Structure formats: C-alpha cells, structure tokens
C-alpha cells in the first residue's frame, strides 16, 4: 500500500482535481485505490459520489479503530476498484495549528490498521478488498494506492497527511502567489520528514491550468524550474473546460470523451506511472 498526498498551501490551484485525476487513472488501470478526503470542503467526496456512510474521516480522527474506519469508507460511484474515506465539514475541528504527536499520527495509525486487519482475513471494506491473503504479502493489502486530498493550509490535517504519506505531490498553478505556496509546501514536506516521517519524499511539482502561448504562465513555469529543477514534472496540466464538466457530472476525466479530456487524461496516466514506480513496501502495523 502506497500513500500519496496531494498538497498545496494556496487555495484554488486544483489539488483536488489532481487527486481525482490520479484516482481516475488508477481505476482505469485496475489499481485498487482509496481516496482519503481530508479537506473540510469535501469536494473530492462530492465528485466521487459514494453511497452514504455512518461515519466520516472526522470520526476516524477522533477514534482510529478499524470498526470506525469501516463505517467511514464507501465504494465510489465511479465504479470498481475505487473507494472513498469520506470527508465532512466536521473535519475542521481537527485542524489545530499546533497539534500533539498523538493527534498527528491518528491517520497513519488508521491506515496501517486498515491494511493489517484485511491482510489477516477480516471482513470486506468498501469495494476494494476481498479480505483474504497472506499477512506477510504486500499484494494482499486492501488497496495498492491511497490518495490523500489535503486542505490548503498547514494545520493538523495537512501535517497528519504528511505523517502518513510516502510521497507528496505539490500542486501549483502558473501564478506568482502559487510559486510561493509551492515553496512553503516543499518546506513543510522537508520539516515533517525530519520531524516524524523519514519515509516521506516530495514526488514532484505538478503545474495545473496552463494556457498555451501565455507569457505569464511560461515565466512562472520557468521560475518553478529554476527553484525546484527536476522536481517539476515535464508534463503540465492544460487549462481545459472538460475537467470542470467531468467533475460536475461526477465522472472521472478518463471517461469524458473530448480532445481536451484525453489530453488531460494522458498527463494523469503519466503521473500514475511515476507514483507507482516510486513505491516501496510499508511496514505492517504492530
């Protein structure tokens, strides 16, 4: 089970779009995936259209027992191989500016318990696991990929995601304020790695909503490349109306049949490949 956080410390750059696009690419390629919606706006949950649950990620952060996790996960309306740990406005109560160590590790503990229980043959959870398997076999994890959609602020919720993640995707748009937001997000990843999670690495910077032949966009992308070098993905996400149309219809961009949608989908397929190539087995929960 590999855990990836989509992160930005500036709102409105499209980090939820990236989380959803990556989830759609994983589903299209048969990669069993769980999306964890940590943003109190719960936009990822809305777009993924899961069945109602009797708990949310806020309850999991209150009490990370497996029974609570089970009640907070539902199959996505997008189809097989994609589940949602549903978000809610109430998650905001966990967004303390200076959380303690115990609070920060609740999400990580919940995810480890989720994998540990199902590897040892417990009940099915959502649509992504069959409950059977060798407890020493990473392939028996309920999900191959976990995607955490973070809020656009550096409080307990984002730090909880970074404490649980193996990789962080830093999302930017080609504007002056977003460039400074990426720098702060990169610094947060490095700080959390040194403080609590040595396995955490920045996967890279993905630039979203890029318009062709726009001199300001070209300048800001060049600025990002000067700051972060090869961490900036070579492929950028073009600004296409198909993204909003697919989200409005609660469908993955991969199923939206327009030239713009296919262009965006190709970037997410490439991103998925980079994510999966960066993976390594996680230790089982004790």
From TrEMBL:
<dbReference type="InterPro" id="IPR050678">
    <property type="entry name" value="DNA_Partitioning_ATPase"/>
</dbReference>
<dbReference type="InterPro" id="IPR002586">
    <property type="entry name" value="CobQ/CobB/MinD/ParA_Nub-bd_dom"/>
</dbReference>
<protein>
    <submittedName>
        <fullName>Cellulose biosynthesis protein BcsQ</fullName>
    </submittedName>
</protein>
<feature type="domain" description="CobQ/CobB/MinD/ParA nucleotide binding">
    <location>
        <begin position="5"/>
        <end position="247"/>
    </location>
</feature>
<feature type="region of interest" description="Disordered">
    <location>
        <begin position="118"/>
        <end position="140"/>
    </location>
</feature>
<dbReference type="Pfam" id="PF01656">
    <property type="entry name" value="CbiA"/>
</dbReference>
<dbReference type="InterPro" id="IPR027417">
    <property type="entry name" value="P-loop_NTPase"/>
</dbReference>
